[in-house]
Specification:
Layout (H helix, E strand, L loop, with lengths): L1 H41 L18 H8 L1 H33 L4 H9 L6 H11 L6 H19 L19 H10 L3 H13 L2 H9 L4 H12 L1 H16 L3 H6 L11 H11 L3 H25 L1 H10 L3
Amino acid sequence: MSDHCSGKQAAPIHREARWLLAPWWCGLGLVFGAPVAGLILISFTNWDGLDVSRAEWVGASNWGRIRQDFMLHRAFRSSLAFTVLNVPVQLAAGLALSLLVHHSKRRGFWATAFYSPHALSGVATVLAWWWLLNPQVGPINRIIEGGIGLLDALLATVGSPATGWRAPTWLFSPQWSRPALVLMNAWHAGGVMMIFLAGLGLSQRFLHEAAALDGAGPIQRFRSITLPQLAPFIVLNGVTGMVFSMLAFNQPFLLSNFQQQDSLLFVVYYIYQIGFEQNQMGYAAALSLAMTVLLLALTGTAVWGTRRWVSLGREAEPA
């Protein structure tokens, strides 16, 4: 009898839930669904982004250009190289900061301090780093040159030749421009740190104490206990870092120059050039959709490929 009554009560509750979710679904359709549908439609035209009346239906020709676009392939390789450099540095820096903050007595203060760069304007941060990495007047190169000069002086005292090293030219070099962006992004590792801190907060202290009593050292405890329990958080940070790295725009847009030889020509920046500088909005729409599909595929592959590691990490957590 009670089950029958509860079944009758469940249906109105579900109907009320659907009505409560209706505004959210409408907003999702307006904010996401409608633009995507419009983007798909534009990708089959030669619209220049200015005059709709001159737009013509070109079929799949924009999509066919993707396979033959040499500059797009170059931009994709550049984005991929940056991602391969940036994501491991972000993970390592965020994990190191989270371990330091987690074991600190003033945890709240240090967490706030390391996360504070996220509160700054992205453009202002990029311009500040441009000055810091300036090869002529930047303080970073002055410190590096001072260290090299000191080392050469020490070598001279023992009769050895000078190193011949020079400070990197950073944003004015095709070899150093991407590492410069990685260095800039490492300053924002506080976001990765916060997610790792959440994972460390879920770990059980008694597991570490029991392992210490069994003779396990700090490194062994980190590898056998901490790292497996952080597996879901590592995957989350890795996937989001990959997506954000592939979609990087502000830094290459503000810092690109001819001396870099297109080393900062990333995919999103190239799409911007196609759409807003060359007025080929139809082709830019096709590139945007192709990039979205590619990122979804990469994300799905990363999650699927690490599912066993994540499941082992969950099994390591105490019930």
